[in-house]
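Let us begin with a simple case.
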Amino acid sequence: MLIEQPPFLYRLFFPGAHWRFNPEEKAVYLTFDDGPIPEITPWVLNLLDRYGIKAAFFCVGENVSKYPDIYQMLIDKGHVVGNHTFHHLQGLKTLTKNYQKDIDEAAKLINSRFFRPPHGHLRVPQFINIKKSYEVIMWDVVTRDYSKYMTSNQVFENVKKYTRNGSIIVFHDSLKAGDRMKEALPKSIEWLLEQGYKFRLIGE
């Protein structure tokens, strides 16, 4: 649970970051990290189109530079985009000035007021700097679709076990997560709809 649903005390380290939205509304916020890439992202977009769902995609600047057409697809289809650094840097392993430089480099390609730190790890000075320019979007449910130790069914079970009103749910449009995500995401969407959840878009 320390991974799938970060505990309250951990959330206190990042005051003002968004981990969950309105707990009074039966709604969820679907998000994707680490794309866009041609092998996975278009598949996700087609699936979301089938259900009429809009989501937030936290993009790695390096991927946007390689695949600008796919990035534009996200925007054209009405999804939200967010900055996920240029090189998918982990804040705890990076000097603050270098981390900010990487975010700024990504911002040249990603026009967004939203930021999500890779791995969810930040130094306090990094967080203070980022809050000056961005809304920091964390999560309430990590599906762990990226883990080679998880099956697609376990990913799906994480969604079922930890989702609640206002949950920000994280999947990954990445090669590492692709096979598990492609099986778990449709099941998760169907289950969430069956439970009466509405899909909301961050920032709407």
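The second case is a distinct protein. As before, the sequence precedes its structure tokens.
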Amino acid sequence: MTEMMIDSAPLQEALVDPEIRQRVAVYRLLASLLRDVPSPELLRQIAALEQGDAASPVADGADEWQLLGLAARSSSPAQVDDEFHQLFIGLGRGELVPYGSWYQTGYLMEQPLSRLRDDLARLGFERDESVQEPEDHVAALLEVMSMLIESAEPQALQSDFYRRHLGSWLMSFFEDLEQARSAVFYRAVARVGRRFVAFEEQQYPG
């Protein structure tokens, strides 16, 4: 894999393995794009991806990144803002419901969220009271994975968290996002996400 150039936060200097650095960076980038409307600066970074030096987050994944760069160059911040709201917020509810409980049970605030909260407490994660979203929001789970990998938690622990809380539904979420009527820029995000999930499934086989 080539070095991932887009990153929303500095990584620990201890992360010397390029593949691990890149995986953490991709988890963070996807989390950022799914948590909130991307900033103009982040869109400019993504738009700077060019054919030949596109950052590939997974083996043979350059095409997806080139398409994402093209989508960013073709979309204004206002267009992406409107798209994000149609997809994830809407009037009462967006086109997609980006929560683990919803994908696993068809309902919000169900047993998967309770199990997740128990696991997060055991891992030492505390809920930020200023955050309104439940912990099973896709962006929150991607951020947790980035932290588990960056802090070099045992592979078995990473795998257990991924399989319990993401592995059963994350691919379906990105497939739904790719097919969403409102998706334009986010269709390219979904393609990157699908390729990345396929790569992560090899890291954490069920």
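The chain has one domain: 18-203. Residues 18-203 form a domain with the TorD-like fold (CATH 1.10.3480.10).
Keep these points in mind for the review questions at the end of the chapter.
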